[in-house]
Write a structure and sequence with these properties.
single chain, globular, 5-stranded antiparallel β-sheet, mainly beta
Length: 124
């Protein structure tokens, strides 16, 4: 999870695609319209994800700046383990918005990259 957050912050689309499960991976990630500056990641609850597990769930909060304002996105992400490591499967955005003023949005949250698409159809 931390490495994928760093990849988002650095606009490293290749790494993100390489660590995305092939069954759910988008064809490409376009950062050209990205208008946010990712700041920090807070890992919350985790379920499974150990050495003997085939699946894992991570809840996190990702903080970012946009137009000088601080925002936070709270997501629950699912990962699957393959022979060569852990891969992102999908995520559910629980809330997103200015820090202290988040709105619960569920599956249809707008993507924080500014594309205008739903998060689940874009970067999620």
């Amino acid at each position: 999870m931390r490495s994928r957050f760093t990849a988002y912050a650095m606009h490293n689309a290749d790494y993100l695609l390489d660590t995305w499960d092939a069954t759910a991976r988008p064809e490409l990630i376009d950062f050209s319209k990205e208008k946010v500056d990712w700041q920090r990641l807070e890992i919350g609850n985790t379920k499974k994800g150990g050495a003997k597990d085939a699946k894992g769930v991570v809840e996190f909060k990702a903080y970012y700046l946009q137009d000088g304002e601080e925002y936070v996105m709270n997501e629950i992400s699912q990962f699957v383990k393959r022979a060569d490591g852990w891969f992102y499967l999908d995520g559910l955005v629980k809330s997103i918005g200015k820090v202290g003023l988040q709105t619960n949005l569920g599956k249809n949250a707008p993507c924080s990259c500014g594309s205008g698409k739903k998060f689940k159809r874009c970067c999620g």
